Amino acid sequence: MRNLVAAALVLSSGVALADEGQWQPYQMPSIADKLKARGIDIPAEQLADLSRYPMNAVVGLGYCTASFVSPQGLAVTNHHCAFRAIQYNSSKEKNYLADGFLATSMDKEPSAGPNERLYVTEAVTDVSAQIRDALPEEPLARVETIENRQKALIKECESDDNYRCSVRSFHNGLEYYLIKQLMIRDVRLVYAPPESVGGYGGDIDNYEYPRHSGDFTFLRAYVGKDGKPAPYAEDNVPYQPKSFLKINASGVKAGDGVFAAGYPGSTSRYRLTTELEFASDWLYPTQAKRFQARIDTIEAMGAADAELAIKYAGTVAGMANRMKKLNGLLDGFKATDIAAIKQQREDAFMTWYASHGDAKQMDELKALIKEGQTQYQTTYYFNNAQSSDLLTAANSLYRLAKEKQKADADRELGYQERDMKMFADRLKRIDSSFDVKVDKVLWQADIEEYLGQDQRVDVLDKMLAVKDGQDLSSMLDGLFATTGLTDQATRLGWMDKTPADFEASNDPFIKLAVALYDTRMAQEKAEKTLDGKLSVARPAMMQAVIAYNKDKGWPVYPDANGTLRITYGMVDGYQSRDALYKQPFTRLEGIVAKHTGVEPFNAPQKVLDAIKRGDMGTHKVDDLYPDARSFMCKLFSCQDKPEAFNSVPVNFLSSVDTTGGNSGSPVFNGRGELVGLNFDSTYEAITKDWFFNPEITRAVHVDIRYILWMMDKVDNAQNLLQELTLVTN
Fold this sequence. Notes:
Layout: H1 2-16, H2 32-37, H3 44-48, E1 58-60, E2 65-68, E3 74-77, H4 83-88, H5 96-99, E4 101-102, E5 118-126, H6 128-132, H7 139-157, E6 163-170, E7 175-184, E8 186-192, H8 195-198, H9 202-205, E9 217-223, E10 237-238, E11 247-248, E12 257-262, H10 273-302, H11 306-311, H12 313-336, H13 338-353, H14 359-384, H15 389-403, H16 420-429, H17 436-451, H18 458-464, H19 472-482, H20 488-493, H21 499-503, H22 508-552, E13 565-570, E14 574-575, E15 581-582, E16 585-587, H23 588-594, H24 605-613, H25 626-635, E17 649-654, E18 666-668, E19 674-681, E20 699-703, H26 704-714, H27 718-721, E21 726-727
């Protein structure tokens, strides 16, 4: 049966991929007909222009997406994307995670934290020729040449310190683009609902549908008085973006065309079947097991210490999200046999490739992939055994001291002068999400797992050796008791030390970092050498895959890599795995129906009261389910309670093609007006990272009408509502 399903999907994939694609903006004119067919009227040429509305209002957070919604730098993103900012400002006395936060005026907006940034992409330039032309054949020299060329382009691009530039690989190294982004360094927290709204349903509802999550938060970008980006200062002023999104208070209805823009993290749609099998058989189960163990440990310790729970709230949320996604991938692989689907497509490609290329290239690529998998497995537990936040800091600091012996242009990316502000901010950030007791217990678990493996590293074993009459736990207690790295000023001070200072230190974490350095560098060299070989094999195969897809009339777009993309689709439900049709909208009444008063279904009383009052204001939608109403009214009289079909929509589904990093992405109607925020996928759709199935792939969005209702009728955020530009149909 599975093979029949796989065959059907393979055979239909050329026809049913209408909404597939995480498109680079410049590609939009090439799919203008598809956009038009979906009812997206904004010109494709306008979407391709990063200097015009709406693309110049879409910004990155470095791990999520946000968008400007006012001329005063107000930006909206997901609650879970702003989790660190909320946690950074929370304490036992003022727990904004539990209670929510609203700044009633700009002077009451606190810093989101030293690491928070907003990145505005201003230019994307094809630099493939500058990177790829006349590369050395020797693998290590090849990859180092690529890195040196990247650094040279970045240095030229960053002649203005207000910009952050990067060179990203597309199509597995076939193309390279230089990304230029304005970097805003003063980001402040403005408005966040309680976690019982922002994460309503918690891990139980994560990746599930129907959902009733108010996953939104408002931030604000600030700059110096001269209008240029600057570090946090009380007298900084709100940033004035080149444009900001209009908000359509009427929202969308089923069947409407929509598109989303954002920074999707990574997908693996062009990877080989052997890579999927490795992920399914070893990588994902191994990672999920570790995440679960770490979550259980932190939650158990946090249950007895509220301050500790707040410190690690963001860490736990991130791991829980990742773990559920891993489990969803594993379940999805089994449910539809994605491996069989990919293998059949791969076999069809190889039949075509037999008359268009050299079959030996595929064998060579598979051999290199196998080598990389073995390499990863060999070092996995060794890397985990260095998981202490303090050892991570020590490793980075000693590497910095070593890199500083080189000319800046020759240093490794991440250790150049351009990186020092962020480097220092990471060291500062440790204080807000670190506790010695937790770090020690988590690290000990990783060490014990490592000690049970066959693949061991002598230098680490010697450093971890316990003395007679001592156990591992007490030995680690000694390390934490005698280190100075728990102090922020001490950590920052090590940034200016020489390698000799490190080598003479008696700090146990510094000593461990020094001892591990040569092994870590040898490991990095082996990885780079393999990367150099793959930098030949992957692009060669990717070129053939692109030609094949074009020959079949299938969409050709790069795998997601954290760069700005656009995806389109329509508001639509789907036939779920349990044979039930999932309606495209959920509504306020669903919050009440799920409410138990026990986390994670513990809606705030003020939300329940507003729903009970029927206080929906202008945000109510008549006939939210017109098809369902028509059917039900044929069976029963609808005259008595016509309001049963009227409510404020909370979340909605669409067929846009998203993945991690798209969290917080603005969802637009056909005119380019904001109608929602992307925040999740359905459980059945998780496997879209590897294979896009248009029948079940759905993204989950917060409906703008719910956000406006929360601001208007629950939290009285009138000061923010006045900043927004609201339009209606």
